[in-house]
């Protein structure tokens, strides 16, 4: 083991999830750079969410789940989840502020966790779970929504889409 590498399973896990979340955020960030303002508010169907609505929901989730993460229920009384799905953001700048605020709350709290916290029990919607389970739940949730964001962007950009990973037929 090198001097800079994690020394425990818990440290290794926390490093790995921080890296995964950074990659998920980076995929969103790189997607937003490719889009014009009006594209952020487009949805493929009236019952579908636009990118800006998905961002608003993700941010609301991050703030609710991760504010006082270890000490309060992850579903805060002042969260109005249904309102997160109303198209109320009006500009790319506002959407990016909402995006960054959610991620800053989440990543700041994640950075305070220690290996000793991982087996602690927290609650989300009055459901007890381990910190590890709560983190894994969020890995799936945030990656799912960023995948939606990327998919919508790819639909909109067509041939102008710049891949975020290795392009097709370029693996070698």
Range of strand content:
under 5%
Helix percent band: 40-55%
Number of helices, where a helix is a run of at least 4 consecutive DSSP H or I residues: 4
User: What's the order of the H and E elements?
Assistant: HHHEEH
Strand order of the largest sheet: 1-2
Structural class: mainly alpha
Biggest pleated-sheet summary: 2 strands, antiparallel
Based on CA inertia axes, which overall geometry fits? globular
Give the N-terminus to C-terminus distance in angstroms. Answer: 31 Å
Using brief descriptors, characterize the structure shown:
172 residues; mainly alpha; two-stranded antiparallel sheet; 4 helices; 5% strand; globular
Can you put this structure into words, describing what you see?
The protein has 172 residues and is mostly helical. The protein is built from 4 helices and 2 strands; from the N terminus they run H-H-H-E-E-H. A two-stranded antiparallel sheet has the order 1-2. A hairpin with a 2-residue loop joins strand 1 and strand 2. The model has no long low-confidence stretch (mean pLDDT 94).
Brief account:
This protein is mostly helical. 52% of the residues lie in helices and 5% in strands. Helix 1 packs antiparallel against helix 3 and helix 2 (51-66) runs parallel beside helix 3 (92-112).
Secondary structure: elements and pairs:
Layout: H1 9-33, H2 51-66, H3 92-112, E1 121-124, E2 127-130, H4 131-157
Antiparallel strand pairs: 1-2
Helix pairs in contact: 1-3, 1-4, 2-3, 2-4
